[in-house]
Structure formats: C-alpha cells, structure tokens
Write a structure and sequence with these properties.
single chain, about 375 residues, alpha+beta, 8 strands, binds zinc ion
Length: about 375
C-alpha cells in the first residue's frame, strides 16, 4: 500500500512540466520517502495475492478470510467499516482482533497459547467451550441482554428510517436514543414495532420485529432482523422467510392485502454483509447505503460486549479468586451480597463448594 502510493506520487511529479515540480525532483535526494532525484529507484509493490494466500492458510486468523469469502457474502460491503474510517482506531483494532480470533478467550489460552491448567468452558455459562463465536452469538447468559440490545439497535435503525421515509416521523435521532412507538399510523401507512398479531388461527411465529403496511397499495411487509455468527447467513435469511410464511398468508387473507412479503434483515455480528441484505433494503425502498449504519451498530455492540466479557469479568474473576481463597469473610449490604452471589454463580465451575448463611449479615465460607 505504502509503495503503491510512493510510486503514484513519483509518477505525478515526473509527469508535471512546471518548473516548481522539476526543482522539487532535483532537490529530493532522499529528503522525502519518494527520493525523486534517483529516477531509477525501485519501490516494489508487494503482491497482494501472496499475502492473501498466506492469510487464508492460517488455522486461526484464516477463519475470517474463509468467512469473508463465502459465496453469499459481499466482501466489499463487509469491509466498508474499515474504509469508512469513522470508528475510533482502538475500536477498529479491537474488531480486527475479534475477526482474527486472537483475544484471550479460554479456548485461545488453552489450545493456542497452551497455557497450563486452563479450563476451556465458558466462564459465564459453563456449558460450551469459550470461543469468540460462543461469546458473540451463543452464550446463554448474554442472549437475553447483550444480544438483544445488538439486535434491537439494528432494528431501530430500520424502523426509524421507514418511519421518516413514510412521514410518520419528522426527524431522525441517533439510534441509541431512539425508542420506537408500538404503532405509528397515518392515512396512508401503518408501522408496528414488536407487536404480536392476533389471527383466527393460532400461529406460533406471529411477532416479526417490524410490520409496515402501505394502505393504498394493500401491501404489507413483515420485517425481521437477525445478527448471527458469520456462517450460513443465507440460511438465516431463508429461515426467516419460512418462519413467517404462515403469518404472511394469514395476514393476506384477514387484512385483505394484495401482497405480503417477509423481508429478513440479516448481517453478521462482526459486520459481514450478505448480498441478500442489499435486496432487502431495496425492497423496503430504503437507501442503498443504510447497510453501513446497520454494520456500525452491530460491530459497536459486539466490541462492547466482548470487552465487557473478557476484560471486566476477567478482573472480577481474579478478584473473587483471591477473596474466596481467604476462605472466610462477610458481606453486609444486600446489594453487595447479591453481586457476590452472582459472581459465585459465574464461578460455579471452578468453585462449586461455597455455602452461605443468612443472619442479618450474609456470611460465606468455603467448605473444608
Ligand atoms: Zn457462555
């Protein structure tokens, strides 16, 4: 990249006829990286293919390469967050580390760093191996909170853009401040957020994230969001359509619609953009570039949750390890007690033998 720019700049100067440029060329005897006085200097451009090949061969880091090169993934759009440059450098670096799977998860410590005496089960749920994939999309302790926030952030962006487009809202606010109304309605449009649809026939999946009805055209869109792991994004998309097919035909009949379409909005938790996402946004008449906003929302929450998981809980773990090894201590305030019990819950894999006695104060000690 660097050498490519150097070569381009040298070319630019050599092709100018102006006296100023000529003087600069003569004067630049290694004063700048361009070293223009030496016309024969060679700045080799590294062959990208070779670097890409090396990347693809790596057992751990290569995982993202292969995710990125799945047939249904739009590579350029998936890397857009890097070229847009509107994230903090620290966040960019952190997401790259997540994508390359080089963060100190227990799985990484055990199998890559070969740290002795390392438990590889998840420190929170204790059920599966603690990999990046597990932390990002699978952990049962994060599903009801962190994953829902990420999902809803993406959904809010879609909802707000539809509301503004159809004049149900006058202006936009940042998605993290936006709280969608359950129902927004005008003479021409109706937009619903997270509402169960009651039908004559009991239907299991009757609550898509967003429902948009364009009244005069008698068209309804069932919009459902998913922010899954990097693999099988197309399957997730197709499953959504299947999931709501029954509801779609029921709505068509009962609401007397001409057309009912299920529109999945799917992108991965590390920001991979499936080709089908463009089509979904287009079907909804949303701007082509909205995927960038969705991508940013997804990766910001992903970085936040991984940071929180690995670093904050790691500190907590160390802290409680030392505390528990003191074997006897008291916790007075109920808040402190509940946070303590929660921590013990989280540590139950490593410390199964703690008992508590409640007597005004809460006492804990290790069983001997
Ligand atoms: Zn877990």
């Amino acid at each position: 990249m660097h050498n490519k720019h150097v070569n381009k700049l040298r070319e630019y100067f050599y092709n100018k006829d102006a006296a100023l440029h000529k003087t600069v060329i003569e004067a630049d005897k290694k004063y700048t990286p361009l070293n223009m006085a030496d016309r024969n200097a060679v700045f080799q451009i590294e062959i990208n293919d070779e670097i890409l090949h090396q990347w693809a061969q790596k057992a751990v880091h290569g995982g993202h390469f292969s995710d990125l090169h799945q047939e249904d993934v739009d590579i350029k759009a998936s890397n857009k967050w890097l070229s847009n440059g509107d994230l903090y450098a620290e966040t960019e670096g952190y997401l790259l580390a997540i994508q390359d799977r080089v963060l100190p998860t227990r799985n990484y410590k055990k199998y890559i760093l070969n740290t002795p005496h390392t438990e590889d089960k998840c420190r929170r749920c204790g059920q599966n191996g603690e990999t990046i994939e597990h932390i990002l999309n699978v952990c049962s302790t994060l599903a009801p909170t962190k994953y829902t926030i990420r999902h809803d952030n993406v959904a809010k962006i879609v909802h707000q853009n539809l509301a503004v487009k159809h004049h149900l809202l006058e202006q936009k606010c940042p998605y993290f401040k936006y709280s969608p109304e359950a129902v927004l309605e005008s003479n021409t449009h109706k937009l619903m957020w997270n509402r169960s649809i009651i039908t004559d026939k009991a239907i299991q999946h009757n609550r898509p994230d967003i429902i948009l009805t364009i009244k005069n055209e008698m068209i309804t869109y069932l919009i459902d969001i998913a922010v899954p792991w990097n693999r099988n994004l197309s399957n997730t998309h197709n499953r959504k359509i299947q999931k709501y097919s029954e509801l779609a035909s029921e709505i068509k009949r009962v609401w007397r619609q001409r057309e009912v379409h299920t529109i999945p909005v799917v992108l991965s938790s590390t920001g991979l953009i499936p080709k089908k996402l463009h089509k979904s946004l287009q079907s909804l008449g949303l701007q082509q570039y909205l995927y960038m906003e969705l991508q940013k929302a997804s990766i910001l929450q992903t970085c936040h949750l991984v940071r929180n998981f690995l670093h904050h809980s790691q500190e907590a773990e160390e802290f409680w390890k030392t505390t528990i090894s003191n074997s006897k201590f008291k916790v007075r305030a109920p808040r402190e007690a509940s946070s303590f019990i929660m921590q013990l819950e989280l540590l139950r894999v490593s410390y199964p033998i703690v008992e508590q006695q409640l007597a005004g104060e809460v006492h804990f000690r290790l069983k001997r």
